Amino acid sequence: MPSPRKFEPHYRRIIADIRRRIADGDWPPGHKLPSTKELADLYNVGSQSTVRQAITILIETGELYGHQGLGVFVPE
Fold first, then answer.
1. What long-range pairs does 16-19 form, CB within 8 A, spacing at least 24?
2. How far is CA 75 from CA 28, 40, 51, 64, in A?
3. pTM for this model (two decimals)
4. Dihedral (Cα; 65, 51, 18, 72), 10-degree rounding
5. CA dist list (Å): 20 to 8, 24, 27, 30, 68
6. DSSP assignment of 19-67, as one string?
7. Using one digit for the tens of pLDDT, what is the confidence trace for 42-55?
8. Which of 8, 56, 61, 72 lies 20 to 30 Å (CA to CA) from residue 33?
9. What is the torsion angle, in degrees rounded to the nearest 10, for the CA atoms of residue 65, residue 36, residue 26 and residue 7?
């Protein structure tokens, strides 16, 4: 009998990839992240709210910070 597939929510996949991009230096300190629409397209998710959920978690953990009207950035 095949084992059940483990489902990973899209927002967790996005969080993991953003963390990887920061760790690899693709998105260095001070880097402005693409817009939520651009990220939704990049991660092939139909809802920008999924991207917002991932970004919110990363802001809450201090891995990103946001400025109203300016965008979301990697901390210095």
1. 17/43, 18/54, 18/58, 18/63, 18/64, 19/58, 19/63
2. 9, 22, 19, 6
3. 0.88
4. -20
5. 17, 6, 9, 16, 25
6. HHHHHTTSS-TTPBPPPHHHHHHHTT-S-HHHHHHHHHHHHHTTS-EEE
7. 999 989 999 999 99
8. 8
9. 100
How far apart are the C-alpha atoms of 21 and 19, rounded to whole Å?
Answer: 6
**16-72: per-residue pLDDT in tens?**
999 999 999 999 999 999 999 999 999 999 899 999 999 999 999 999 999 999 999
d(CA 27, CA 7): 27
> Tokens 């109203």 map to which residue?
68
